[in-house]
Specification:
The protein has 223 residues and is mainly alpha-helical. It folds into 2 domains: 115 residues, no CATH class; 61 residues, Arc Repressor Mutant, subunit A, CATH 1.10.10.10. Helices cover 39% and strands 7% of the residues. The strands form 2 sheets. A 3-stranded antiparallel beta sheet has the order 1-2-3. The chain has a two-stranded antiparallel ribbon with strand order 4-5. Strand 1 and strand 2 form a beta hairpin. The longest helix is centred in the middle third of the chain and has 20 residues.
């Protein structure tokens, strides 16, 4: 079940966090949400501009579709993935994927996508644990905990295509995971919007909030 994927923050995801999980842009998330998600939701759901794990899987599927998915099928596909059987139409969850039986059978496996989302959720958690911002260290700019290495600097080098081999030589104190964290952090916090401090998230639960029962409160890895 999609609900078995842990939500590292215990809260819904913001647009930028959902973009990281789906490996796409915030702009694409907003476009897909307006076209296929919001029309499927209830009035109560519309009050919560955040997303759950099932949403991220749906966005990831549309961002990198394994086959052609007709536009008029996408709302019902979202309903099936999100557990809204009353709106799912011809789509239904079956095992590790979704199946459409008419007008012809179409099967889409979600196994690899779910694992990719799971990995990114865990990286979101590690990002908020690994990145710190303290006034006495480099003016409060975010650094990797225990170092004076600027996270934005490492992320910008990776964006420019600097090889991991070179980065390992230049930053021997960083792990392979740290390089992934730098990329995620920069996606969540573009350089021109870098935060003065890093807000620490609470962990009330590892359970994914029920998509059909919106969880109150805000969620952001950094603000």
């Amino acid at each position: 079940m999609l609900a078995e994927i842990p939500n590292a923050t215990g809260c819904p995801f913001t647009v930028r966090e959902a973009a990281v999980l789906a490996d796409t842009s915030p702009e694409e998330i907003e476009t897909m949400a307006k076209a296929y998600v919001l029309p499927t939701l209830t009035t109560l759901d519309h009050r919560k501009p955040y997303f759950g794990v099932a949403d991220a899987v749906f966005f990831g599927l549309l961002a990198h579709p394994p086959c052609e998915i007709r536009d008029d099928d996408r709302r019902s596909l979202y309903a099936a993935i999100g557990g809204r059987s009353e709106h799912a139409g011809a789509w239904k969850m079956e095992g590790e994927g979704v199946v459409r039986t008419v007008p012809m059978e179409t099967r889409i496996s979600l196994g690899r996508l779910r694992e990719a989302v799971r990995r990114r959720v865990l990286l979101l958690q590690r990002t908020q644990q690994r990145v710190v911002s303290r006034p006495g260290i480099l003016g409060g700019d975010p650094v990797f905990d225990g170092t004076r290495v600027l996270v934005h600097h490492v992320g910008s080098l990776m964006k420019r295509g600097i090889s991991r081999t070179e980065l390992r030589e230049d930053f021997p104190s960083l792990s392979e995971e740290d390089f992934e964290i730098a990329v995620i952090f920069c996606k969540l916090n573009p350089w021109h919007e870098r935060p003065a401090t890093v807000r620490r998230l609470r962990y009330p639960s590892d359970e994914v909030p029920d998509r059909r029962e919106p969880v109150a409160g805000r969620s952001a890895v950094f603000c």
